[in-house]
UniProtKB/TrEMBL annotation:
This is Spondin domain-containing protein. Coiled coil: none annotated. Residues 1-25 form the signal peptide. NCBIfam families: NF038123_dom (NF038123). InterPro entries: Spondin_N, Spondin_N_sf. Residues 62-178 form the Spondin domain. Keywords: Signal. Residues 178-200 are annotated as: Disordered. It comes from Shewanella corallii. Pfam families: Spond_N (PF06468).
């Protein structure tokens, strides 16, 4: 009887061991099952543009040009309305950093440097198709107190490859600083003075067409400008081309 009991006990142990082995094998097979393949995300489609700006003035360098992609409801300036602080910084000092941070501005690309009289600068942009909307181009006339030029609300959505749009732009006065032309009040090479000044001491605190500079040669004795710094409209030519 004792021998039979041991034999049965051994068979039971072998049976349990075999069952456990089968269960482990089954678990191992489940762990090795490859995960389902995920579909690849669609490729991002982009549109490429070139913005070319030509300085048409005799002696008014332009600050590094900023191109700003923006939504339909964005308006960087409006004639007859008070300039924002962001626009004031651009018009007085050529600083576009605050403009690029405005709500509704979705992207900014700046030029390589100042654009001298008669010179041209070209800015290349690659924009995801889903974000292509409107474009603004803006720059300061640096031998002035607060003059700027540019264009805004350019609709890029339907511009075909190799198609271009051109604009001849006028000079605007931001109305944020008096056009004194006095020493120390202009950031350009004719003076090397200050740029943005938070105090608003303009003749009128609203954006309007710039009346032009007067200069010392015209009888404004405190001016550091000469007749060469005078300008007529248009002051710049801007061309936008879709390249891809």
């Amino acid at each position: 009887m004792t021998i039979t009991t041991r034999f049965n006990s051994t068979r039971i142990k072998l049976t349990l061991l075999a069952s456990a082995t089968l269960m482990l094998a089954a678990c191992s097979d489940n762990d090795n099952t490859p995960p389902p393949e995920m579909p690849e995300p669609p490729a991002v489609v982009t549109k490429n543009f070139e913005v070319t700006i030509t300085n048409l003035t005799a002696n008014q360098p332009l600050s590094p040009v900023a191109t700003l992609q923006h939504n339909d409801d964005v308006q960087l300036w409006m004639a007859g309305e008070m300039a924002s602080v962001a626009l004031e910084k651009l018009a007085e000092g050529g600083d576009t950093s605050d403009l690029s941070e405005l709500q509704g501005v979705t992207g900014t690309v700046s030029g390589s440097g100042a654009v001298g009289p008669g010179a041209t600068d070209t800015i290349s942009m690659e924009i995801p198709e889903a974000r292509v909307a409107n474009l603004a181009v803006i720059t300061m006339l640096v031998n002035t107190n607060d003059a700027f030029t540019g264009v805004q609300g350019i609709d890029l959505t339907d511009l075909a490859i190799d198609e271009s749009m051109s604009y001849r732009t006028m000079a605007y006065d931001a109305g944020t600083e008096a056009n004194s032309e006095a020493k120390g009040t202009m950031p350009g090479p004719a003076d090397g003075g200050e740029g943005f000044n938070a105090s608003r001491e303009g003749d009128v605190d609203r954006v309007h067409i710039h009346p032009g500079v007067i200069s010392m040669d015209d009888g404004l004795m405190d001016s550091v400008l000469s007749a060469s710094h005078r300008f007529d409209n248009p002051v710049a030519m801007i061309t936008i081309t879709r390249t891809k």
